[in-house]
Fold these 3 entries.
Entry 1:
Amino acid sequence: MPYAKRRRTERPGDSSDPSRAGQELSPQDPAERARAICLRLLTGTPRTRKQLADALAKREIPEDVAQEVLSRFEDVGLIDDAAFADAWVESRHHGRGLARRALARELRTKGVDAALIDEAVGQLDSDQEEATARELVARKLRATRGMERDRRLRRLAGMLARKGYPEGMALRVVRQALEEEGEDTEGLDEGFY
């Protein structure tokens, strides 16, 4: 009767493998650890240089080693904050309907340089932003039918405000949508926000 082979589990200090025989039990070279950490993090999703630097600091990689590894990754194109910002703006604007202000705020929290943020959110023009706001209001409008006019305005304008749309644009878009539905919009933009 054949028997099942049991896997041998590696244990620290087990030097039966000739390739491991000369290794010390001390931690790996910090640069090697930093590279491994960065590659693992970049496998799942793109990250900014700051996000990777924070992850390396959290894992106690020396600052000079971290900067050296991150610079090398930038040189070979594995870290590209400009491409990250462009992709982020494209994805979050089309996917969630976020406006330039909200996108800039998100990119700042991810550690993207201000000049790169300006360039990335500059891809969106006012007309594009307003068209997206109209689409968002049109989707939400049906759910507010039957509510009183002021409450509808607060709901719709509040939704746009949370997504980073300017107050004037939000009120204008909501008022136009309500007018198209036959609502009386006299005095709607007074006292909100």
Entry 2:
Amino acid sequence: MNKKTIHILIIFTVIAVNLFFGLPRIAQYTAVDETLWSYDRVPKFWRSIEKGNWRGTNLCDKPGIVLAMISGAGLPFIPDPRDYEELQFKPKTPEQLAMMSKIYFSLRLPVYLFTLASLFAFYFLIKRLLSEKIALLAVVFMGLSPILLGISLIVNTDAIIWILMPLTLLSFLIYQKEGNKKFLYLTGLLLGLGILNKFIANLLFPFLLALIFLKYILSDYEKTEDKIKYFKKSMRDYLMLVAIALLTIFVFYPSAWIKPKELLNTTIYSLALKKVWPFVVGAIVAFMADAFILKSFISRKICDFFSIHKTAFIRTLSFVILAVVAFVFFNTYSEMKFYDFEEILSAPKSDMPLSQEFPLNFSSAFYSLLFGLTPLVSAMFTLAIILLIKIKRAEITKDNSLIYAFSLLLFIFIYYLGNSISNISSTVRYQIVNYPIASIIAAIGLSELIGLSILKKYFSGIKFYFLVFFIVAISILSLFQTKPFFLAYSSKLLPEKFIVNLKDMGDGSWEISQYLNSLPNANQLVIWSDKKQVCEKFVGRCKTGFNYKDLANFKFDYIVASTSGKKETTSRAFRSNSPFYTTVGAVDVKKLYSPNEFYDFKININNKESDFIKVVNPATIPIN
């Protein structure tokens, strides 16, 4: 059996394992914000296309067009989802519940299958850029990642963006390596689709420009003519890339056909660039003028300095990142003595001063990443950083995989930098694109490790595939341990009391609703839940939030309390003038959210007592 056949079989094995865990979960999950897409935006997009209502394809600020296109493949197999949207908080019949499950299954399945098919695209591009071994390892890491599996099961722009942004990066790096214009065009196409899916992809505009300068720094141009020629060609190709991306947006975004300003709304006026677009556009214009008018005088002066000190540049930046990684591990294992990462990540958008918030957001971003990866991937990711610190000048060539690891690591660094400056915490969802990128870096780290002279003989030839199947086996074990709450995964490296995904996507809500539905006269029960996702699959009457009109005149039979809902509920619901207080009574909030007492039914997410969702009879809790 030749190598190509073995690799294809392994990829299909990864897909089969992914399907084994993911397929049963598609209809048995209720996710945050998914109702907006399933009941409204996806049907609205295709309804607008059918009627020629091009303005109606403007769905939201995401803008979510690619998601709507893919998910919409399930619409012919279900009734109009709008007929079921109003039932979310109302009593439902078993037939209505079954149809709601079918709606979700039909709209989620195309998205899920798209994510699985993307593994072949990742393999092809990584193989082209790096090697077959690294490509195979990266696909195994990504395809069996609990968090990436979890995000792929829902109708949400994050389920697509984790594919499009990394593929865009890989395609551009291949273009830089080979000079093949096909990959420049592919980069523009992927970038346009990424922006059409979620505005965060706009960050690639400045980053791809930065990669042009990085390549110059890491190269050894000696003649001035060659330097001028490089910048002129690179800037010309960059303009071509931008033009293809904008053309892609225009072609696939009908709303832009009648309102061309939508091109600006999805790019420089988007949330990703809204505050900084003058600087981004100004920088691009300045560098273009420098390349075409000043013969790259300014660019050469700046980049030549870094090029002379390229080894120190790579080592220094890698050391800074490794220092942050070391601090994250130290702080976590010392009971978060210095920074409470959980507190930071539970409120992703803060109003604290930048000087106070920046170090908190920057370090907590690595917490979400390192403990959201499986232990092996996290270790190999860290190893790759260590190897970059030890890199020698002679090793800085386009054929060295570590150089591409540095480019990818630089993306993660800048991504965290941007979020931190914007006072945004990088939760699992807010940095979902970094998990596949970290997986590729980890694959490079592992490849470098088994390529060492003292280990090479143990992993050469067929022995390499024994390692691959070992990785598949331990990855399956991780999936079994976290099943079915894949998106709430926390590495075994993380102490038991801590959680990675503080802003979860509704994990446990479906299971709680099934328990409530099994109770006698469930359709006559009235509950309050700090997770609105419970309401959607509950047959009785369900209330959420703290609005007086919503809560007045109701006597709640049960309260659903969860770890993720604790902070908001305790700060708002139990004040003496709160409608929740006057409706339910002076419930002891500490006991309501006590993880190990006062509950009729409880689920520990991923078997962590610190991450729970439970059903409480308010009559059983002592009065405060």
Entry 3:
Amino acid sequence: MFEQNSPFRIFLLHLIAILFVILNVSDIRIAGLSHLLPLFDLMMIFYFTVFKSVFAVWFVFLLGIWNDALNGNPLGATALCYIILIRLFSLLNSKMMIRENFSQIWKQFIFFCFLFLLMKWAILSLFNGVLYGIATPLVQFVLSAVLYVLMHKFFDYLSLKLLEDR
């Protein structure tokens, strides 16, 4: 119906990323665990920016601003974390070329996620003048690291259906 790499397919991929940001801030009431969702948006940003180089930096910046606006955080905090880490990991990947082995990609994501949560925790703590607890980021880190394996397969499927030639 739509040819590969058509603007519609790329738009659809961007729309899915926006929906993941909304999912991460949705008020899901599961025994008081509404803030303990895995970072699905971070997983998608890592996969389609660092691993596949599909999302442009401007789009990731807008996702960060959107995330901050929905969460009530200072605008730009999440975008700053995203962009610094994307630049760092893109530079490391260009030097080391470790994109083929899934275990290496997974380790990269774990480190990416850890640094993201640490940076965001530090920025929000400094901005608000309060030292926030680490329990929520720690649980988010563990959930995100474990679920990345499944999400990577899902992103592989999206990539195959929306970006690759048949």
